Amino acid sequence: MSRRVRATIHLAALRNNLARIRRLASRSRVMAVVKADGYGHGLERVVLALREADAFGVASIADGERIRALGLQNRIVVLTGIDEPGDLARMRGLALEPVIHHESQLDLLRSEWPVPLQETTSRAPAIRGAAQLPAAPRSIWIKVDTGMHRLGFAPARLRGVLEEVAALPGAPTLQLMSHFANSDVADDALTSAQVARFDDIANLPSPLPQSLANSAAIIAFGGSQRDWVRAGGLLYGISVVAGQTGADLGFAAAMTLTARLIAINSIDEGEGVGYGHAWRAARPTRVGVLAVGYADGYPRSVQPGTPVLLQGERVPIIGRVSMDLVTVDLTDLSSAAVGDTAVLWGPGLPVEEVAASAATIGYELVCGMTRRVDFVEDDS
Ligand SMILES: *Cc1c(COP(=O)(O)O)cnc(C)c1O
Predict the structure, then answer these.
(1) Is 35 an active-site residue?
(2) pLDDT on residue 121
(3) Closest residue CA from atom 6 of ligand 1
(4) What was the pLDDT predicted at 117?
(5) How far is the CA of 33 from the centre of ligand 1 (A)?
(6) Residues 82-127: pLDDT tens digits?
(7) Which ligand 1 atom is at minimum distance from the Cα of 234?
(8) Fewest Cβ atoms closer than 10 Å to its Cβ: which of 49, 62, 95, 173?
(9) Centroid of ligand 1 to alpha carbon of 205 (angstroms)
(10) Cβ(230) to ligand 1 under 6 A?
(11) Is residue 21 within 6 Å of ligand 1 at its C-beta?
């Protein structure tokens, strides 16, 4: 049989995680962040599972187009907004809402707003369901930089921007948002300072709907939940809070990555395993070989000893992860047999733990599955 690395996506976990976020942020609407192909889980299956979300957050117009092609009518916010002439027209045709965070985007707004709907209908036939969309709400999200210093208008500029945008023909509806730099650290002073700065500038004569919290802030900074929370990681069951996995927080892993055990070989004490003989046997050892490697997206940088689950038991990786293969120590798992399925991460083995061993975060691992990985859905 050909090698098969499989990413099983648990649709019930996605739904349950959304429900849990709703309970934790019961006064807020939930924007389900599905950028990067639904954090690597597959955009279409993720948005269909999360169709109850109040909005989807994407990073590109193309992602919005994929969602509309499914016939879904949820609000869709393009988190990085518009870059080029014509983007607004495309977005209007698809009823996508831009985030405006920079003067260059204001220039585009000034020159292209209001966007007549008929400009875009030539593209519409490809979009199933577009005809039934309500007249695109002319909604705009304004992003203010409260201290992350990545995207957003400076606080001192905000009033001027809001006045200018509110005065555009058709009076667009506005929402105000900002993003945290450090909300994965509990009691972090920077996050508190960002909230205070936001409250200072959001104190407007006619207050706008507000959005601040990402996944970590939903958990650790409840006061930042406001009108909209923007949840990514937790929907997929992944936490970025150091030392706390999504499972610890009551969320379920939405991806299980598995591979086959394709060989078991015995070596003598003192022998080395794999490239560079990076690991050497301190005892006679049964070496298991799994058909998965960094070309599938399993990180080469994991520390030796990183666990893999076989028959529900943890066994340690030995030697270097190579392109197609990973070696594990099966000496203490005598029942392991060629043909067994190994779990690289999933329920029972948090991706956060594997990520920590590779000096990264779980998000990067689930976003990094390559094209030769088979995706399957589990709806049990
Ligand atoms: C990705 C993203 C989020 C979601 O962050 P999580 O940590 O995955 O919850 C929220 N807001 C913005 C602007 C983002 O880019």
Answers:
(1) yes
(2) 46
(3) 232
(4) 60
(5) 6
(6) 999 999 999 988 999 999 999 999 999 988 887 766 544 444 444 5
(7) 9
(8) 62
(9) 28
(10) yes
(11) no
* Six-digit token string for 44: 């279409």
Residue that has been written with the tokens 């210093």 in this structure: 149
Would the CB of 45 count as within 6 Å of ligand 1?
A: no
- Looking from the CA of residue 143, the nearest atom of ligand 1 is 13
Report CA(11)–ligand 1 centroid distance (Å): 20
**pLDDT tens per residue across span 28-50:** 999 999 999 999 999 999 999 99
- Helix axis angle, 155-166 to 103-112, nearest 10°: 10
Q: Is 6:374 a contact under the CB 8 Å cutoff?
A: yes
Could you give the CA distance from residue 365 to residue 354 in angstroms, rounded to a whole number?
9
CA dihedral 156, 159, 160, 163 (to 10 degrees): 170
Q: Residues 213-257: pLDDT tens digits?
A: 999 999 999 999 999 999 999 999 999 998 899 999 999 999 999
Structure confidence by residue, pLDDT tens digits, 277-336: 999 999 999 999 999 999 999 999 999 999 999 999 999 999 999 999 999 999 999 999
Q: Which of 143, 275, 294, 363 is catalytic?
A: 275
Instruction: Name the token pair of 131.
Output: 């005809």
Beta-carbon count within 10 A of 137 CB: 12
Q: Is the CB of 152 under 6 A from ligand 1?
A: no
Report whether residue 212 contacts ligand 1, using a CB cutoff of 6 Å: no
pLDDT at 103: 96
Q: 114: burial class by Cβ within 10 Å (0-12, 13-18, 19+)?
A: middle
> Which secondary-structure segment (H or E) carries 22?
helix 11-24
Supply the residue whose CA is at minimum distance from atom 15 of ligand 1: 79
Cα–Cα dist 29/18, whole Å = 11
